[in-house]
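Predict structure. Input: TATA-binding protein interacting (TIP20) domain-containing protein, 1237 residues.
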Amino acid sequence: MATSTQRIRGLLERTRHHDKDERFMATSDLTTELDAIDAIEKGLQGPVRDAIVSQLSDQSNDVQAVAVKCLSSIVKKFDIEQTLSIVTKLGELTLVGKDDIRDIYALGIRTIICSSPDETGPRLSAAMLPVFFAGLRPRPGGPVVSGLPSLAFSVPEPPFPIDVQIICVDLLKELLKRYGSVLVNYHGAILDQVVTLLDNPGRIVRKHAIATCGVLVPIINLQLFEHLMQCIINRIEGSGSIALAPLYTYIQTIGVICRASGELVGPWLVRIVPQLIRFLGASNQDASEEHPQVFTELKENCLQAFDAILNRCPHDVIPFLPAVIPICCTLSQFDPNFIRPSGHGEPHGDNHDRMETDATFDDVDDDEGWDDADAAEFPDDDDEAWKVRKAALVTLTSFIRSAYDKVGIEILQPVVDTVVSRVEDRDCNVKRQALLALLELVTWQKSTLTSQFVERVSPTLTKLLTPEEDVEVNVVAVAVITEISSLPSLQVNDAATEWLRSLIRFVTQTVQGGHAHTLLVPLLNCIRTICLRESSRSIHDIDELVADIAAVSARACSTTLPKVKDAALQLCAAVIVLVNPNHPSLQNILQKLLNAIHSCLVLQDVDRDVKQSAINALSVLLGSFASSTLFTGNEVVGQALSPVINDIQQVTRQAVLQALLRIASTNVSLDMSSFLKPASLLELLSLLRKKSQSLRYLAFEALSALLRTRASSVDERTLRSTLLQIIACIDECDTRLAQLAIELLTSLISEQPTAFASGADANDLLAHLISFSQSRLLSGVHRSALVSLLKSLVVLGHHLGIAILQRDSLFDAFRQLMASSGHFDRDVVTNLSMVLATIVTAPPDPNPLSTVPVLMDMMQLQHSTQLVSIAAIGEIGRHIDISGVNGLLGTMFSKFDDSHEDIKWAASKAVGRIAARNIAAVLPMIITRLKRAPSHRYLLLKALKEVIVLRDDLADDQLPAELAPLLFEYCNTDDEGIRGIIAHCLGALCNDGETVRRALTRDIVARIRDPSPRVRWVIIGALRYVNIDKEFGQHVPAFLSMLDDADLETRRHALLTVNALLRGPPVPGLLEQVVPVVLPAMYRQMAQDPSLVRTVDYGPFKRKVDDEVHPDLVDTRAEDFVCCLERSLTDDRDVQLTAYHILAHMASHCPRRVLEMLPRLTPMFTQGIKEQIRLSKGDGGDDSKDVLRAAVRAFITFNSIRGIAESAEFSSFESRVCKTPLLQEIRRSIVAEISAT
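Output follows.
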């Protein structure tokens, strides 16, 4: 520290050097030195302070700049008294210092505001406010506000110069941004000061005051907000003349307040909107002759204010839309400097003559005509009418985005007509805004667009595709065409023909002219979008257009810009799909495309995206036209593929693998011997050991495509070594890769069976299969793949005589595994039972009668072996009738008395599966025991459920008539498990033949109002297992009445049933019946009932449980449930979790609705997340972190919503989220997950 102190003192000496460069370097080194230490000694703080303040007044601008930079470092390490001293000095210099460097002093204060620690906020604010108020107040005096100290220096009498006032109001805005929440006691005084500045004669001062008002509004209380609104609206209502300069300032303030406060302005619209309408409808004669520009500016400001209202109060503004939207449509044509000939519409371009509005043809000499020289006398420099037209279109754009679906056709149609007509405005700013409105219309109203709309806008859009138009207009016009072309429901073929011709011509002119390359990417992407439409093959003259597109895309590949190359190569891939194989110029087209693609492939240090697009285009070309004479020679194909082969281990390897997969899968005739060589196959196999999952799977799929189609081209030795490495992939470390390996082996066994003739290879494969079958990670798809492979192996062993693959050998191998192993998990039991059943029942010549007794003998061994044996017998019985095996059923029924529950359940399931294959013989035994053995009732009902669910194509009379009455008899039992099985059985029985279905439906519906809540519980549970058709659907409303059942458990079960129905396969007409009944009932159930909240003791911790709320209910429908979501965001953790899942889902499917809800939901976000952060630090913290994770994931999803940046509340909230360490960590992990997938 001593050494550092000495260096700092030496640098302080150098800051007073006469050479400005020496002072600059000394100050810069001082900043670096201060950054390197944790704290500044008190003895140094005074000299450092004086040196930096002195440097702020230095004659050198560079020295001043580096002093400001140093200031941001020292205020973090100074005592607060030193910082206050600097603030006082800078405040004095700002008010009474030199005019030419006043901005430097202000920058110093701004730096202190932004860099000071949070805890210094109250004292810094108290020191700064008197300075700012002194620079803004109209007269001198004591303390401006009660509680604030007086100025420590004298100032001249106000008013201060305009530049001082601007600086003070701007610094006040920065102070409110940083420390507004700690200035609560001064909000009233600050608000009064800001409102006073709205009447300031300086226009720039008023502008900065408006911005400050926007920062102040979100942090003041409701009382002050109402005072502000009352004050502004009273001034607007009291304005008698539109020439009053501050009037448009008040209107601008309304717009800023609305953007900052959102729906708080809603109740005031009844006073605001009529005033805006009054000024929007003002005529030209109302403007003061002294201030003619006020007329235009006033209309512009009114429109901007209404645009803010539309965006922030979309629901409250609906009653005013019928009055305002027509005015906006009219003002979008506001152009008082044009004479419109009678009977003509809006003038287009420069072909219409301009003259003053009060001129007549009598004022013009008959001998004189209107020529260009005369037009020059009427310059456009002073014409600001375009601002009104643009503001009107901006308002219509907001209307389309936020309220288009809330009004009738009588308002919608004029809006569409206006937007389309304004695309031809003479001003490029207005034209661009009209196109943006059109783009919003196409984006947000996709379902309402028709082919007639496309026919109407097509000629106008086509005219804009010329280099003579403004570049920004070109870009938006192309975006509109691209968006229209991306809608598959629209018929645009006629328009697409003209668009393609204009786009091709435009691209050609752009490439030849060597200018406006920023246009090439959207132009090429637009052509590609049209080409990718499914209906593009039916476009008129498509063959001619394809040749032109191929030529244009090939030429664009020769440009030097990587992004243009990338777009051109993507267009090459798209146009290949459209090429007709019988095209007269096929060879010429393919040669052009191949040359262009190959030229990009062989480039050195080419952009990665360009290389990937080139590889993709080449794969599409070879996959589609490898049979062309262009590729008949192996030399041509080898030359084309050589760059791809060389890149298989480079950064573009994923693109290479995708290309390889496409080529190998789509064209089996193409010679790909280059990829089948041992070295190439080894490179592919090496990718299977990479860390990236996506890379491993893609590499295996490419390898699989090669071997499935071209295994016969691989020599036997290479194929065998490849198969050994594929077999090694069958491991539980990566079950997905293991599944792909098993599926590939199954395919190869049927095509290349001799590759498995070696006993050593078969041994290796069997060892991996035995190990894999013992994994607890297998799911249905893995088991299905394993079963298919075992079936193929049994057939292979039979045909080739491979001893180890014979049925008996395979059965013995797995039987020994069962006998030698200890405990098996439930999933492993399922795996092994399916494996054994597959081996026993696989063709050819299955013979279960010899293997089932072996399994019965194994039922006498250890517990896990018994469990697998019973499950295997059940699986065998599911496929083949084994009910005749001697003593089998008796043995199974005896297991119902076993001491292990899992043995009982497995036996019950096995009995049901055996019975499903021989109902006539086994089902009566189950029913008889059901009546005589109450202790086995649950197990027998489980067996009965298996019979009902698994039976195959049974006639109506195959089930005993007494079955349904027997099930109803047990509905009133206390055992919830039995009731659940009965519900499943009754629902499944309703899916039987028509006779059974009608009779059973009648009996079930009759019990909906049963006095017993247990019976009602069973009846509503049965509904989820019924295949609802039109006939049964008429009874659904009766079932839904149980949503308001008096019994809590019945009500809960009804909600679970509805949830299952809505999540299940779609049923025609069901949604229309369910939603009107379910949503109101669901919202009622979401209200918390304190009487149903109980505390559950989990030992180490306790947790409150709400018996009324089910966490999955709300996610069934995304409708108008803002109030429900507001409560859910501060409810129980499980409910919050589901609420965030709903919001993330809505952000993808109905983003506009999310935007409308955000102003109301953001305070709930804050409240709920604060509570979860607090809970995450205590017991049960993991549950709270799950909620926070769901919340952050939802917020990330919100960022993809178009227009989210306009939500000031959410933007402010998200900035706080990003600054919270715990949420920062969660956000980083989620972003990493998204990037990885």
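Confidence is low (pLDDT under 50) at residues 341-381, 953-957, 1107-1120.
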